[in-house]
Design a protein that fits this description.
The complex is a heterodimer. By secondary structure, chain A is mostly helical. Chain A contains 18 helices and eight strands. In chain A, β2 and β3 form a beta hairpin. The two termini of chain A are 32 Å apart. Chain B has a single domain (5-168), classed as Beta Polymerase, domain 2, CATH 3.30.460. The chains are: A mainly alpha, B alpha/beta.
Chain lengths: 412, 174
C-alpha cells in the first residue's frame, strides 16, 4: 500500500503561493459562516474555473477546550461535557465516555440499563441520520425531505425528553447505569415511533433514491476507494460505503451488541450515492435492533437501572432518609466523587458518524487526569481534499453534507 | 479475539528487540512502550506484516505527565481488521527535547492528530509535512492542554476591556 500520494493540505499550503502570485488558479474562501458548511468550517478552495484543484479545511473555530475542562471536573460532572461534542448524537457520546470509565472501574451494569442504552443509542443513530438526510437534501435543493426528516426527529427528541427531561443535552447515561428509571409511558411511546418509522424511511426513498436530479448530483461524485479510506482513518458509513465492513458493534461489541441480530450495510463505489444508501439501510437496521431491545425491556419489566455499588452510583432518595450509611455515600459522591483505579483505558463505540474512541487516564483520584476523544468527524474531515480534488465546486457542497461532519465534535 | 496479546508482543519484540522498552496488560489491553528512534520502523512493520496488518491508526494523542520523566507521552492505538485486535503503543517524550518521529508516512490519518498533539502539548513531530496549529488560533502563545497552563487562563474580551486585552496580543502588533 502506498501512502505517499495521500496528503492532507493545510490552508497555508494554498494561500502562501497564491499570495506570492505564483499560481494562475483562483483561491476562494468558503465559510466559516456559510450554511452549506454545517457549522463553522472554513474551506480554502483552489479553483481552476469551476474545477476544484485543491481544498484545505481550516478548523478550530468552535474549539471550547472540552478535553481540558474535563480534567477539572469529577468523573460524574465531566459527563455533561460529552453531550456538547457531537451535539446531534449526545447519547452516543455519553455512552462512549461512561463505558470507558466503567472499563477502568470494572463495575457491572444491570441488564435492564444495558438494554435501555442499546435502545436509546440506536434511536440516537436514527435521529442523527435524519438530520444528515434532511440537511444533505436541503443542500441539494430538495426542501421537502428536510421537513419530513425533522418531523420524525421530533418524535425521537420527545422520547429523549421523556426519559431525561432534556431534548438534546441529555446526559442520561451515568457511570454505573442510567440517571433515572425509564418512565411508565416510555415503552408505548417508543412502540408508536418504531411502528411509524419504516414507512417514513420508505417515503424518503421514494423521494430520492430514483430521483434523476438526486442521482445526477450524487452518483460517481466524491469517490474514495477502500485503501485510501482506511489510510485516512475514515470510519462509519463513509468507510462502509467504500466497501469495508468495519463496525465496532460487530468487531468489538459493547453493551451486549453481540446478542442482537442485525447486519452491516456495505456499499461498493464509495461515492455520495452509496453513502446515502448505506445510511438509509443503517436506519432500517437500527429499527431492527430497537425492536429487539424493546421486546427485551418489555419482558424484563421493572428492575434496577443503575449499579448497586454505592461507591459509584448514589443511593435512592428513600434510602437516604432511613440509613446513615446511605447518607454518607450520597454526601461523599456529590462532594468528593469516586476514586478510579490508576491506569488508562481506551474504548471505542460506533457512533452515528464512525468510531468514537474515548481514552481516559486516571491518576487514582476523583477527577480524570486526561480524557481524549477520537472524534470521528475530526478524522473523517481529513479525507475531504482527497474526495473533492478534480470535482466541481458545486459538488463540494454535496460532499461536505454527505460526510456528515459535526463541527462541535471536530473542534471539541 | 482472533489473536492474543502474547503472540502480538512476541512478534514485535522478536522483530525489534531494541525497540520494545516494556510492555503491560491492563484491562485485557496490551500496551507496548517503544523507543522513539525505532517508532517509524516498528509502525511500518505492524502495518505491513502479513499476519498482524494494523492498517488503521485509530487514535493518536498526547498526554502530559507533569513531574514525571519523560514528561510527555504520545499514545497510538492501532487496529487490525484482519485479526480484530487493538494494540496500544506509547512513546515517551522528554520536556527539554520534545521530538518524536512523525508517522504520517505510515498512516496519512496521523496528519491532523499529530497537529493536534503539537497544538495542545507542543510535541514536535519530525518529518510532518505541515506542523501548524490546528484548533487554537495561529497567534496563540503556549500549548493549552499542558498541565502547567491554568484553566481559564485566557482573558475574555468584552466591549469595555477589549482594547486593553487586544493591545498585548500578537495580532494587534502587526
Amino acid at each position: 500500500m502506498s501512502t505517499a500520494t495521500l496528503h492532507v493540505p493545510s490552508p497555508s499550503e494554498i494561500t502562501r503561493p497564491a499570495m506570492a502570485g505564483e499560481k494562475e488558479t483562483m483561491v476562494l474562501n468558503l465559510g466559516p459562516n456559510h450554511p452549506s458548511t454545517h457549522g463553522v468550517l472554513r474551506l480554502v478552495v483552489e479553483l481552476d474555473g469551476e474545477t476544484v484543484v485543491n481544498v484545505a479545511p481550516d478548523i478550530g473555530f468552535l474549539h471550547t477546550g472540552i478535553e481540558k475542562n474535563m480534567e477539572y471536573k469529577t468523573y460524574q460532572k465531566a459527563l455533561v461535557m460529552t453531550d456538547r461534542t457531537d451535539y446531534l448524537a449526545p447519547l452516543s457520546n455519553n455512552l462512549g465516555y461512561v463505558l470507558a470509565v466503567e472499563k477502568l472501574l470494572q463495575c457491572d451494569i444491570p441488564l435492564r440499563a444495558q438494554t435501555a442504552r442499546v435502545l436509546l443509542t440506536e434511536l440516537t443513530r436514527i435521529g442523527s441520520h435524519l438530520v444528515w438526510l434532511g440537511t444533505h437534501a436541503l443542500d441539494l435543493a430538495a426542501m421537502s425531505v428536510f421537513l419530513y426528516a425533522f418531523r420524525e426527529r421530533e418524535q425521537i427528541l420527545d422520547i429523549f425528553e421523556l426519559v431525561s427531561g432534556a431534548r438534546m443535552m441529555t446526559s442520561y447515561f451515568r457511570i454505573g447505569g442510567l440517571a433515572y428509571d425509564l418512565t411508565a409511558d416510555f415503552l408505548p411511546t417508543v412502540r408508536r415511533f418504531l411502528e411509524d418509522i419504516p414507512a417514513h424511511i420508505d417515503e424518503y426513498e421514494d423521494l430520492l433514491t430514483h430521483n434523476p436530479l438526486w442521482l445526477e448530483r450524487t452518483v460517481g461524485v466524491g469517490v474514495i476507494d477502500a485503501d485510501a479510506a482506511l489510510a485516512y482513518g475514515l470510519s462509519g458509513a463513509n468507510l462502509r460505503a467504500s466497501g469495508v465492513s468495519l463496525d465496532m458493534r460487530k468487531l468489538a461489541p459493547y453493551c451486549g451488541y453481540e446478542t442482537y441480530d442485525f447486519e452491516i450495510p456495505v456499499g461498493q463505489s464509495g461515492d455520495i450515492y452509496d453513502r446515502y444508501l448505506v445510511r438509509l439501510e443503517e436506519m432500517r437496521q437500527s429499527v431492527r435492533i430497537c425492536w429487539e431491545a424493546f421486546k427485551r425491556l418489555e419482558q424484563m419489566g421493572p428492575g434496577p437501572y443503575v449499579t448497586a455499588d454505592r461507591k459509584v452510583a448514589p443511593p435512592p432518595k428513600h434510602e437516604i432518609t432511613h440509613s446513615m450509611e446511605s447518607l454518607i455515600h450520597h454526601f461523599k459522591l456529590w462532594t468528593e466523587g469516586f476514586k478510579v483505579p490508576r491506569g488508562d483505558a481506551y474504548l471505542a463505540i460506533e457512533s452515528p458518524r464512525g468510531i468514537l474512541g474515548v481514552y481516559v487516564v486516571s491518576d487514582g483520584g476523583p477527577k480524570p487526569y486526561r480524557v481524549h476523544f477520537r472524534a470521528p468527524s475530526f478524522i473523517n474531515l481529513q479525507s475531504l481534499p482527497h474526495m473533492a480534488k478534480g470535482g466541481m465546486m458545486a459538488d463540494l457542497v454535496a460532499l461536505i453534507a454527505s460526510m456528515d461532519p459535526v463541527l462541535g465534535e471536530v473542534d471539541r | 479475539m482472533a489473536i492474543d496479546n502474547q503472540t502480538v508482543l512476541q512478534r514485535v519484540s522478536s522483530a525489534f528487540p531494541d525497540a520494545v522498552l516494556s510492555s503491560s496488560t491492563f484491562r485485557d489491553d496490551l500496551t507496548v512502550q517503544i523507543a522513539a528512534d525505532h517508532l517509524v520502523a516498528v509502525t511500518q512493520f505492524l502495518r505491513d506484516d502479513a499476519e498482524l496488518r494494523y492498517v488503521l491508526l485509530e487514535n493518536l494523542c498526547g498526554v502530559d505527565y507533569l513531574g514525571r520523566e519523560p514528561r510527555f507521552e504520545v499514545v497510538y492505538h492501532l487496529f487490525s481488521l484482519a485479526q480484530v485486535h487493538r494494540l496500544c503503543l506509547k512513546v515517551g517524550v522528554p520536556e527539554e527535547h520534545p521530538h518524536v518521529p512523525s508517522v504520517v508516512e505510515v498512516w496519512p490519518t496521523a496528519n491532523w492528530q499529530e497537529r493536534e498533539a503539537y497544538d495542545m502539548f507542543g510535541i514536535i513531530f519530525d518529518g510532518h509535512p505541515s506542523l501548524e496549529r490546528i484548533l487554537m488560533p495561529d497567534d496563540w502563545e503556549g500549548h493549552p492542554q499542558r498541565k502547567d497552563v491554568p484553566l481559564g487562563g485566557e482573558e475574555v474580551a468584552f466591549t469595555f476591556n477589549a482594547e486593553q486585552i487586544y493591545a498585548h496580543k500578537v495580532f494587534a502588533k502587526e
